[in-house]
Write a structure and sequence with these properties.
Elements (H helix, E strand, L loop, with lengths): L7 H8 L3 E4 L2 E4 L2 H18 L3 H18 L1 E4 L2 H8 L8 E5 L4 H14 L6 E5 H6 L4 H15 L3 E11 L2 H6 L1 H18 L3 E5 L11 H4 L1 H17 L7 E5 L10 H17 L10 E4 L22 H15 L4 E3 L18 E6 L1 H10 L2 H14 L10 H8 L8 H5 L3 H21 L6 H7 L19 H6 L5
Parallel strand pairs: 3-6, 4-5, 4-11, 5-6, 6-7, 7-8, 8-9, 9-10, 10-11
Antiparallel strand pairs: 1-2
Helix pairs in contact: 2-3, 2-7, 3-7, 5-7, 5-18, 7-9, 9-11, 11-12, 12-13, 14-18
Length: 479
């Protein structure tokens, strides 16, 4: 059983077995003991201690130990710029949203990465997921970095804010207020070690406008303003990788003309702001025909998607050749057929976002008692989201993600047999995806292009909170 510190003295007792803290720094005096059990106790304290001060201290220690160990929160920006220059082989970086069992699942990802010399892989969490999974950025980053230590991974650790998305309705009522909300979340994320941020004002695209430039106007203006904000607060020596998005996922397919209109508007806006010298975005997300989480059929299975690879290829080629970006980004992909994944590297797709497929494995292989308990909770608390004509299977498939936060402790404390069954299946999935996406042996590129800048831990001090049903209903999902 894990030791969870309830006081600073108890935390110090845990840490002192493997780490010496002096003059504001850490020295790892016993790596074997650290990886054997101390790091477990630290992350369980950071997530489950009843003392908020101790939780923050545990997160700080994890970050400092990770820096000393050599598992360093990093930006993938310079590698993506190299991809844009054609200096790498064709691969598509998997960006994985871990909604539950974060520490254990991240361990399996690192395990696959170490065995197959993978350097290009990203851990991410969306604005909406932070809410319904009860994982603030500092907790998520701590779980990922603790997993790297546990598995003996040394090198850059890419942690990303996915879909830091503007609410169209909130923006209409109060544009500056909605921008400020995104800025506050971005600040919190960067301070926690998220040096990769996907800004998403694509919800503000207005297709009723006559010209493509006008349609994308609110999108590129807010992307430019967020670029200025991020560049002003990023740690010294780190260029945060910024992603933009031109087509709202689940909407109409994107076109090269829209991408060009967005990029010209974005570049000119930075110029008008007197910020033309700022480093801009490194990638651009497009819509190719997918929907977040897939479209569930009445029996709960997922409908087949007609994905248009020509969208990825044509826009990817345009933004590489004209603007030096890494390529396009594919969202909503984890529920796609297995035979499609090796096509992404062939079509100028530099990054792919994966989430719901991993969640599906968790639920499919979870103990029936836990699954039924969560489903009962979902039906009791989210019945207002049960749409007319929807079967129970469809309703539960679309809504069960909201059972991850309230039942986080039960997921983390699953018996070893049940947890192992889930993790083994996920490890197989990660290995398959990494191979198909051609990221085996990409460690050569991260070693070449990514500098390990050991920035200190900061936090806003925000704790996971119970999110109201109303708030959850307003939020968009990730993949």
């Amino acid at each position: 059983m894990y030791k969870i510190a309830g006081s600073t003295d108890e935390l110090q007792a845990i840490v002192s077995e493997a780490v010496t803290i002096s003059n504001g720094g850490v020295i790892i005096k016993d790596e074997d003991t650290l990886r054997e059990h101390v790091i477990d106790d630290l992350i369980y304290t950071a997530v489950f201690s009843d003392n908020p001060v101790v939780k923050e201290e545990a997160k700080m220690i994890i970050r400092e130990v990770a820096n000393e160990f050599g598992a360093v929160a990093s930006s993938i920006h310079d590698l993506y710029m190299a991809m844009g220059r054609g200096e790498t082989h064709s691969f598509t970086t998997p960006a994985m949203n871990i909604r539950g069992l974060t520490y254990d699942i991240a361990r399996r990802i690192f395990k696959v990465a170490i065995k197959n010399n993978v350097g290009a892989f990203i851990f991410e969490i969306a604005r909406s997921e932070i809410g319904y999974t009860y994982q603030r950025p500092s907790e998520y980053a701590s779980a990922v970095l603790a997993a790297a230590i546990k598995e003996g991974y040394r090198g850059p650790v890419f942690i990303q804010g996915d879909h830091f998305q503007f609410s169209a309705s909130s923006y209409k009522e109060d544009p500056e207020g909605e921008l400020k909300k995104i800025q506050e979340l971005t600040k919190e994320a960067i301070e926690a070690g998220f040096y990769n941020i996907d800004i998403d004002p694509s919800t503000l695209v207005d297709y009723s406008k006559d010209s493509l430039l006008e349609q994308q106007r609110e999108n590129y203006i807010n992307t430019a303003r967020m670029t200025e904000f991020i560049r002003a607060m990023e740690p010294e020596g780190i260029t945060v990788s910024i992603g933009a998005e031109i087509g709202h996922i689940g909407g109409k397919n994107s076109t090269p003309e829209e991408a060009e209109a967005f990029m010209e508007g974005y570049i000119n806006t930075l110029k008008d702001m007197g910020k033309s010298d700022l480093t801009g975005i490194s990638k651009i997300s497009v819509q190719t025909g997918t929907a977040h989480g897939g479209v569930p059929l009445p029996d709960g299975t997922v409908a087949e998607v007609k994905l248009d690879f020509s969208v990825l290829d044509s826009i990817g080629r345009l933004v590489k050749e004209r603007y030096g970006l890494s390529g396009t980004v594919q969202h909503g992909a984890s529920t796609l057929p297995d035979e499609l994944f090796d096509r992404f590297p062939e079509n100028n797709c530099s990054e792919i976002h994966l989430a719901t497929g991993f969640q599906n494995i968790m639920y499919d292989l979870a103990p029936e008692s836990l699954r039924e308990e969560i489903y009962a909770y979902i039906k009791e608390n989210f019945s207002s989201e049960w749409k007319e004509g929807q079967t129970e299977q469809q309703f539960l498939y679309k809504t069960r993600k909201k059972g991850l936060g309230p039942f986080k402790q039960k997921w983390w404390y699953l018996d070893s047999e049940s947890k192992g069954r889930i993790l083994d299946a996920l490890e197989d999935k990660f290995r398959f995806l990494f191979k198909k996406l051609n990221v085996f042996n990409t460690r050569q590129y991260t070693d070449k292009y990514i500098s390990l800048i050991k920035a200190p831990y900061k936090t806003s001090g925000k704790e996971p909170e119970q999110v109201s049903v109303k708030d959850l209903k307003l939020e968009e999902g990730a993949d």
